[in-house]
């Protein structure tokens, strides 16, 4: 089959897992010789945190955004206008990476402006607002082919929602993330007041889904044995409102006697530029990924590629690709279990960086992910009319 014209749609310019997936996939598909365009909604002056080696179309967000519902609606509208202006018929594959872009394509499909589309489900959220819940549901129900980044979500999509999905995992850029130190490492530590440690790193900001409060409680326990330990909570650029949960964490930190700020017990970096992430992983002594719900957990592979031990929740999807030789397990519902796993990872972790970790990383490359995406695209296209030339 000749090269395909592929549109990848992602919901934000910020470095969230699904957005990173989109940009890495765009680069890998481009390397395979395909013509890729990334569509992303953006308010005036915004640009992607990392530019892929392909065409990027920014969909201007112009509607008022006073709350989460209006923000989502504005981005769906932005996608629709940009795709109509660009001409959706120019693409063989339209691939939504989230509920926002999935709703835009579902709407265009209902109008007869799109023949069909592919949707990747990274994970699903629980929404109290009925409109947000309906948008999330429509984005996968109206898709012609659903992909998931883990077997856990492929299984759930079928058993819970009646959707037959295909598993296409993430990859990791093992050239970008490595244990080789450089001058940026010391600069990063100085910038955020990261001391000699040990340093516990959590990536993704302060969120209930990330289980940050339980991690804070566990970290307080770790400090009783390791009084110089620091917890670094990095990232957190999100379109959803996590302010109430963040306030709870700040209050609990005060109750636990943990100071927050540069050079303090807990360092909260906020959203970070993409270029500093490799140095951040290398600056940590352990990555904590004790989430209650994840699609895949891309930062786990990035940390391991950087030579940093990992504590992971003993739940799927982590149990699909990690084992005792590549991580330290923790029960995410048990603070004592998290604390014990952190102490173990900071000591004799048992993680085999000589054999098991390289073998794990070799299984997950973006080139492999791109080829599996192409297989899924071709199977889907084969069920439709012949590709126009």
UniProtKB/TrEMBL annotation:
A GO molecular function held by the record: glycosyltransferase activity
Superkingdom: Bacteria
Keywords tagged on the record: Transferase
Segments forming domain Glycosyl transferase family: 189-346
InterPro entries: Glyco_trans_1 (IPR001296), Glyco_trans_4-like_N (IPR028098), GlycosylTfrase_MSMEG0565 (IPR023986)
Any one Gene Ontology BP term: lipopolysaccharide biosynthetic process
Limits of the Glycosyltransferase subfamily 4-like N-terminal domain: 16-176
UniProt KW Transmembrane helix keyword: no
Protein name (Swiss-Prot/TrEMBL): Glycosyl transferase family 1
Organism: Paraburkholderia aromaticivorans
Taxonomic lineage: Bacteria, Pseudomonadati, Pseudomonadota, Betaproteobacteria, Burkholderiales
């Amino acid at each position: 089959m000749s090269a395909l014209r592929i549109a990848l749609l992602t919901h934000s310019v910020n470095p969230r897992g699904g957005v990173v997936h989109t940009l890495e996939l765009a680069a890998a598909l481009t390397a395979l010789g395909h013509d890729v365009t990334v569509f992303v909604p953006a308010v005036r002056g915004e640009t992607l945190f990392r530019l892929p080696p392909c065409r990027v179309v920014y969909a201007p967000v112009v509607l008022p955004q006073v709350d989460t519902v209006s923000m989502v609606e504005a981005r769906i509208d932005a996608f629709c206008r940009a795709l109509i202006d660009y001409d959706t018929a120019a693409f063989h594959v339209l691939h939504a990476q989230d509920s926002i872009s999935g709703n835009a394509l579902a709407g265009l499909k209902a109008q007869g402006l799109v023949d069909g589309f592919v949707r990747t489900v990274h994970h699903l959220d629980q929404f109290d607002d009925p409109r947000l819940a309906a948008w999330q549901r429509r984005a996968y129900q109206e898709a012609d082919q659903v992909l998931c980044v883990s077997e856990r979500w492929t299984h759930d999509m079928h058993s819970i929602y009646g959707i037959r999905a295909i598993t296409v995992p993430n990859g990791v850029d093992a050239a970008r993330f490595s244990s080789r130190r450089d001058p940026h490492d010391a600069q990063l530590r100085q910038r955020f007041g990261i001391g000699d440690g040990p340093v516990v790193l959590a990536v993704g900001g302060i969120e209930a889904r990330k289980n940050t409060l339980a991690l804070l409680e566990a970290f307080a326990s770790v400090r009783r044995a390791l009084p110089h330990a620091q917890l670094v909570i990095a990232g957190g650029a999100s379109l959803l409102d996590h302010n109430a949960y963040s306030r709870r964490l700040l209050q609990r930190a005060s109750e636990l006697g943990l100071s927050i700020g540069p050079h303090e017990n807990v360092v909260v970096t906020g959203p970070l530029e993409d270029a500093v992430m490799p140095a951040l992983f290398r600056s940590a002594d352990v990555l904590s990924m004790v989430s209650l719900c994840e699609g895949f957990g891309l930062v786990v592979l990035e940390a391991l590629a950087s030579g940093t031990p990992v504590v992971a929740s003993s739940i799927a999807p982590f149990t699909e690709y990690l084992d005792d030789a590549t991580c330290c397990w923790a029960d995410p519902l048990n603070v004592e279990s998290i604390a014990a796993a952190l102490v173990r990872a900071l000591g004799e972790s048992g993680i085999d960086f000589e054999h098991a970790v390289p073998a794990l990383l070799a299984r997950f490359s973006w080139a492999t992910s791109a080829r599996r995406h192409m297989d899924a695209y071709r199977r889907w296209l084969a069920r439709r009319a012949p590709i126009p030339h």
